[in-house]
């Protein structure tokens, strides 16, 4: 029997929401990003909506112009450990950097939250972008690693972590009370890794979980990032402006996965979406306008001045178009811009839209409207080969998640596009992925 | 009004208990060290007993001869984040090393669990002993740092962490929705630290908690360790063989605290105890004998051979005395032995007892018996100036904690020596300690 593939859903949890002015809404709790009860409620809501997972992004440096929701917030690994107790089914994915941690510590904390959640943890692998060098300066370095160095380190880091996760075979612990034999020493393995960046002996002092080890999630956009994703990631997170770009990315990425000898169906592509949901199209448009009206010109232009160091934005307003500001042809020093430039050159958005696009809170017309319209868009993208699922980056929380769970999820369920209830209890089970074999498993005929 | 000072109690949580054979008891769950529900229940029991805190020790390397309860266990910071949701009052103290982490990451995770628990976190500061170099080999180093280097790094590390914790003043967040002013930039501070070991700019991306920041706990025994404790620790954890040694340590340590210009009453000394509780003296003695009978000669002699590399233990049995094995006069290469040698030279215990003493599961006669006898011992030590409180290192869990909470705590309460219920809600409040002032607080007359 072949099972029909269904849409996968992840909720991106970030304080009052993705939109930089969401904290200013009348109903918003500006202290949300540091309120554990608030986060527990978000996770419970997402679980009520049968979401596959919640997702916690991260950054390792802030400054006076940072998004309000990241100035003062929980650290993701400790946060998902806390959310594990408030939920029982939903996956819990935390971002952690390969550039500023030790693989032994991170392998251990990740597997620890995987055990705490009984097989529901995921690791969003990042190498950490650091345009201004401010992250490096929090870790004793004068300047940030170059992208290529970062990804070489990241590749080796991931291999060390996966190696440490296999330290104990699944049947290593025999617990023979009569003889005093606690474990079988033949099933305890030392990694003995020696590479360009790390020397790690092992073994790790924690054994694999109900799902083997945490689900591997990645969102790399550079060539180096996509290579890492294609080689190791099980869930990939991207943000595309429209269906055409999403499809092109989807096709290209799945080909890359295949080029690593992996089955493209074993890697799920989640497209980031920031829907604005209203009872009517007009109500949704009004909600979007309200959020944008609360976004000050200063925030937009200050952010863009930080992002594009080569341009003097004091001459522009948020209504200036990308081409008038010279963004369409710009050779930016910012490597992040490479992924945005083609669409900006093609669509010629205003600077306000450029800002939303870059910070990931862009709500295109296909995502502003009634629950039916949103469901239609998701169905079209899913069936059209643009996405295996979606990362809900709600402009305003908690209502953006509440509305989606209460109004959009039932439509997807009615259409047979989304689960009615959880069938499995681990995160890998939600994605239909098997428990990864340990490298020490002996295949017996 | 002067409040009578009461006994402080901490529960040391470790799988099936401190005793290396505790997992072999008929009622033991050998997989306890990795069972989150089991840990939640331990924490709930300790909270029912009005304990000030639970305590999670740690290590960063294992080998085939490690204590069964540490081979496969949770990482402490993620574990206390999970325990925060199962409890509401008790303090949660995690061990983390200054030798193998980055101060920015650790400052952040500690403050994150402090916020998650609403002001109930503590940090047991360790520099990590590493006799065999196996920890260093998990972190890319060929050999471990020397003790003196470790403590110099540790001192600077703690100062950086405390500095980062003050990044945001308590009233920095103004949340003015009308004007769009989220915080007052004058109340955000960059540490700009440059020292011998670390260069850390800041600011930290999380603000102080309900109790300011995590309680600082330490258990250093070397001179360098005691200096760090005396300078910064708020709770100190020691293990002494008998009342006389405990008193001598207590007096000397409080003098050291005073030498740093601190009030000795602001630092609490918890003495580690491994009581064996029985309805009668005979029942308790039988319980102790049962545990010891399950401890194999091989475990004892194998551990000692690892610990004292200079001695060939194959010639001895666990009944050999310390003097017959030459331990009383040994110049050991193991720096840890310095703290045990005086008492071993004086008491001339058997090798079995030496083993228990070193791993911290020694139950002296004063701690084996009826609940009344245990309570009498604790009262005598407390009133005699040997302890401000106790770290319950139960030989067998969960019963060692259950029995203590059900049978010993009520006696201490009847005698007015221990609280009947929690008065505060933060860990610092349990210890009667004020919220630490931020270094940026302006004193206004």
From TrEMBL, chains A, B:
Database matches in InterPro entries: Diverse_substr_monoxygenases, Luciferase-like_dom, Luciferase-like_sf, NTA_MOA
Coiled coil (UniProt feature): none
NCBIfam families with a match to the protein in the record: FMN_nitrolo
CDD domains: Nitrilotriacetate_monoxgenase
Similarity comment: Belongs to the NtaA/SnaA/DszA monooxygenase family.
SUPFAM superfamilies xref list: Bacterial luciferase-like
UniProtKB keywords: Flavoprotein, FMN, Monooxygenase, Oxidoreductase
Identification of the protein by name: LLM class flavin-dependent oxidoreductase
Boundaries of every Luciferase-like domain copy: 27-385
Database matches in Gene3D superfamilies: Luciferase-like domain
MF terms (GO), sorted A to Z: oxidoreductase activity
Entry EC no(s): 1.-.-.-
